[in-house]
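Record type: monomer structure entry
Structure origin: computed from sequence
Chain ID: A
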Amino acid sequence: MERLLQEIILLAGTLREEILDILPYFLFGVALDAIIRTFKLHVKLRQSIEKMGIFAIPGAVIIGVISPLCACGILPIAISLLINGVPLAPVMALLVSSPLMSPSAYTLTAWELGQDWAIAKLIAAVFMGLFAGYVTLLFQDKYFNFKQLFKGEPPLHDVHDHDCDPKIKCTCKDKLSNRLAREGKNKFIVFSAKFLEGFITIGKYTMIGLLTEIIGLRYIPSDIINKVIYSKSLWMIPIVVFISIPLYVNQITAAAVLYGFIEKGMQIPWGVGMAFLVGGPVTALPVIAIFFSLFKRRVLYLYLGICVTGSLIVAYTFNFLAR
């Protein structure tokens, strides 16, 4: 029992030190997200997608990297856009780019991994969104028009309707900040509520990532970590991508997991690092489950094909450029 208590104290002390290290950038990132949500900048941009014409795909990518929503958060919005007549190509661009980058994800990645990693992750998010949009556009008219997307009848209701399918229903109206906004409270009160919501959500995923990294470094044999994290083998990149698929890591958690390795002066190869930073967040299991239950198989295969292929392209490109 005494040994267990000592281990808990040691882990708690390490966690406290790492939290204090990232706290300034964490608070800054949460504040940026809260500002975007308070003034509904991402909503205003998202509502303009159907009016963008030939610029819909790059426009959706810009919205995706600005939006503070993860894969599970953006999916109901993406389905709502489809129901309202937006083609699959820009929706796929939004769906793939949004889980990879947000203001808070950029600031936290910059603090935890360094500015170069944050910029690389932003470039990867933009590429993945454009790749997803234009690949979908190639096949959209023949294989992915609206009638070919859903199993059975398409959803009849908007994701914000009370009688919407529970699998895709958006519950944002129930959040404290949105209730305060509907009551006409001033922007500072709404901002404070959104800051608190973001602090809890982003903080939760940051804690998961930090704990995973601390426990991994403490208890996983170093030779196993070296074979995976520090491997320069080209074969390790697809292995990391495919290992990342079943892991429920998002844009915040993925960077936090790698943080401890870089903090201790360990050099993570760019190919392996980018494979994990991109491959994990873009293939969240809850999203795949909804794809499986709601869409026809061809849509799920397209999504997974884009995510895996794009992740490999990103990882191998950065691996080559880093030589």
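Annotation 1: The mean pLDDT is 78.
Annotation 2: The CA atoms of residues 174 and 180 lie 10 Å apart.
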